[in-house]
Amino acid sequence: MLGFRLLSLAVICGASSNRPPFFEYVKVARWLVHSSDYAVSSTSCASERLGCAFKGQPFGDIMSVTDGNATLSTGIVYTYLPPEDAATQDILADPRMSLTFSEKAIGCKSTAEDPPCARLTIAGKLTQVPDGPESDLALSYLFSKHPQMKEWSKAHSFKPYWMAKENISSFFFIDFYGGAKEFTVEEYLAAQQLII
Ligand SMILES: *[C@@H]1O[C@H](CO)[C@@H](O)[C@H](O)[C@H]1NC(C)=O
Ligand SMILES: *[C@@H]1O[C@H](CO)[C@@H](O)[C@H](O)[C@H]1NC(C)=O
């Protein structure tokens, strides 16, 4: 009976074969981050401008992200930003922001707000990855997931950014009915990822 219900849920969600079951929610959160092409970034408007009615208004934008490569999931979100972008201007003024992921973007069959269609918000600070080995690693992760980015670096001075472990403050995660699940940064980073 339970097996049948889980199977039905998997069908409803259009879950891919490597999606952990909903009750292993920390793993689902890690799977969602690793599988996502992009996140919605929410920054605080550094000034009044297009898309910002007033300074301090939340500004939602799209960032292409990665947390590793084809064989590695770190759980740490990396992105690649040019200095002139609106969202970059915001985080240079105040790095506190959040990143939101929806399973709908990677193939949930139900509608995005339906709880079994997983969603995750990571709140923290997005900062530039330090130059040197950390930055080289970040670029290898970004280029492995988004080969287009190699071309971007020729036109603009894009830099890799991350939400470093010490700068993650909390998670808001839903993958089933009953409200947001709680887990710590340590639990999130420790959740084993099965990469198929
Ligand atoms: C992924 O990154 C790790 C750590 O840098 C590396 O050991 C591994 O070879 C990389 N995998 C691929 C497919 O590039
Ligand atoms: C964490 O954020 C602060 C800004 O508040 C920044 O100076 C620091 O470099 C970040 N940590 C890492 C490891 O990037």
TrEMBL record:
Q: Which Pfam families does its entry note?
A: CREG_beta-barrel
Q: Which PANTHER family match?
A: CELLULAR REPRESSOR OF E1A-STIMULATED GENES, ISOFORM A, CREG1 PROTEIN
Q: Sorted alphabetically, which keywords does the UniProt record give?
A: Signal
The CREG-like beta-barrel domain is annotated at 24-189
* Gene3D superfamilies recorded: Electron Transport, Fmn-binding Protein, Chain A
Task: Please list which residues make up the signal peptide.
Answer: 1-17
Gene assigned in the entry: Creg1
List the protein's name: Creg1 protein
User: Top-down, what is the taxonomic lineage of the species of origin?
Assistant: Eukaryota, Sar, Alveolata, Dinophyceae, Suessiales
Give the source species.
Symbiodinium pilosum (Dinoflagellate)
Which GO CC annotations does the UniProt entry carry?
cytoplasm
User: Which SUPFAM superfamilies did the record assign?
Assistant: FMN-binding split barrel
